[in-house]
Amino acid sequence: MLNFNHPDDERLSALAFRDTDATADTSLTAHVSSCDRCTDLVNDLGALRASLAELPDLQPSRPLRLLPEVEAEPVAVDRFGGWARRFFAPVLTAGAALAMVGLVGTTVPALDGMASSAGGQADSAESTKAVSEPAAEAPEEAAPEPSVALGAAAPSERSTAEGADGLAADSADASASAAADGFADPSATTATEGSGEETENRALASDESNSDREAMTQLPADRSPWPMVLFTGVALMVAAALLRWILVPRAG
Amino acid sequence: MTDALERAPANRTPPLPDEAAVIARAAAGDRTAFAQLMEHYQGACYGLARRLLNDADQAADATQDAFIHAYKAIGGYRGGIFRSWLLRITANASYDIMRRAQRRPSSPLPDPEEGAPELPDAHAVDPVAEATRSELYRHLEVALRGLPEDQRTAVVLCDVYGMDYNEVAAMTKSALGTVKSRIHRGRLRLRALMAEHRELFTR
Q1: Partner-chain residue, chosen from B113, B159, B187, that has the shortest CB–CB distance to A53
Q2: Are residues A100 and A18 in the same domain?
Q3: Using H for helix, E for strand and C for coil, what is the string for A28-92?
Q4: Which of B114, B135, B168 is the last residue of a domain?
Q5: I want to staple B51 with a disulfide (CB 3.0 to 4.6 A). Which of A142, B16, B145, B156 is the partner?
Q6: CB distance from A57 to chain B under 8 Å?
């Protein structure tokens, strides 16, 4: 039956897809049932609806990651450990260097002798005092010489006790030697100018001072600083390593 | 809002046999259970994204995004059909990608799935009918890709995945009347595109 007064296609679509307002519209359903064109359209759309609703799932063409990546747990800020590492590294290095220097100094005889000489000069006051201790036992006939400088004081005490005579020439040599060695000994200079007993005493004192310095340069090897350097270096290394092991957190 | 997505046809992914228990484990943080769910439903999610986006790579990206959203949201899952819940997330993820793509238009790469016929199921009761159905589906997919994007989105969400008009309007941020118009125009255009394969409907 021909009916040119067709309903709107969207209404027919709604009827085909079973929208409730369209299926409830009796005039619409009546027209469709009496119109071949609209019937075909509704049937086609109905078949389309059924097919669309049955479209199967699709499988992805590439594998998908099913799980989001696990967020990396934030690393605890190891402020103390970092500080300790920065602190102990140079201490360990310094200890190792000291130990190495000490080891070389201890094992190489030439270096050991040099160190003994240097150590003897550095500790001249102490060494001189140690050598002059026997002089203190001498009779105190001669008055102490307060003007004698460091290193010459003790021998001057001994000068009158030994009672040397006519040693002016020796004293002059001694004063020159003392000056050359850097010993400030004004009393020795005075002895070359003066005369009498005081001058002789001073000359003798300078001579004794010279001989004591020679003795000082022959200190035994156990006065060498190298073992102490070695010991200090090893002690630093051990202490730093131990503290680092205790204080710095370890992995795992 | 009616959950029309619950009307999943038989040829789509059915629920897992022990789905409620798996969902509960996944909601409690069991990643293995969550992976099991996503593996089971990845075809459904990818199918929706693929039909909405009309691009295989973008569809895979949208599916992955949906999995991430689902992973974050599954702790708040409050029952209902899990497939529908997951498909809504996928639709939103796909629509996000679609909007981004509209801002930065680019020509999609050639689709490797284009025109590839599905092999009929050799174990089907009626292999001929199965082959015809596969042919129909393939032509329908091609016809869907021929729709304008707004019509395709509306038709896919409403007629393929069963969302109601209001839900489609909310998802596409469009007026209800606009959505209805797009859907009806899309259906009529699909009919025109499928006219030469009309015989496939009747077999």
Answers
A1: B159
A2: no
A3: HHHHHHHCHHHHHHHHHHHHHHHHHHHCCCCCCCCCCCCCCCCCCCCCCCCHHHHHHHHHHHHHH
A4: B114
A5: B156
A6: yes
CATH of the domain at B201: 1.10.10.10
Q: A191 lies in a domain? A: yes
Q: What is the pLDDT of residues A43-82, one digit of tens each?
A: 989 999 889 998 999 988 888 888 877 655 555 555 666 6
Task: Give the pair of three-digit tokens for residue A176.
Answer: 């020159």
Tell me the average pLDDT across A80-92. Answer: 75
> Once rounded to an integer, what is the mean pLDDT over residues A21-40?
89
Q: Is A125 helix (H, G, I), strand (E, B) or coil?
A: helix
Nearest CA in chain B to A44: B191
Q: Domain limits at A37?
A: 9-51
List B residues 22-81 in contact with A (Cβ-Cβ < 8 A): 31, 34-35, 38-39, 42-44, 46-47, 50-51, 56, 59-60, 63-64, 67-68, 71
CATH, residue B17 = 1.10.1740.10
- Residues B94, B138, single domain; the answer is no
How many angstroms away from the CA of A1 is the closest CA of chain B?
A: 23
Domain span including residue B64: 1-114
Cα separation, B197 vs B202, whole angstroms: 10
- Do B106 and B15 reside in the same domain of the chain? yes
Closest residue in A to B62 (Cα) is A64
Which of B139, B159, B182, B196 is most worth mutating to test chain A (most A CB atoms within 10 A of its CB)?
B159
Q: Using an 8 Å Cβ cutoff, are A32 and A15 in contact?
A: yes
pTM of this structure? 0.55
Residue type for position A86: R
Number of separate domains in chain B:
2
d(CA A106, CA A133): 30
Vertex B59 angle, CA B24 and B133, to 5°: 90
For every one of its 203 residues, what pLDDT tens digit does chain B have, with 9 covering 90 and above?
444 444 456 667 788 888 999 999 999 989 999 999 999 999 999 999 999 998 899 999 999 999 999 999 998 888 888 998 999 999 999 989 988 887 765 555 445 454 444 555 556 667 888 888 889 999 999 999 999 999 999 999 999 998 889 989 998 889 999 999 999 999 999 999 998 888 887 65
pLDDT of residue B2: 42
Task: Return the DSSP state at B110.
Answer: P
Do B173 and B88 reside in the same domain of the chain? Answer: no
Residues B167, B157 contacting (CB under 8 angstroms): yes
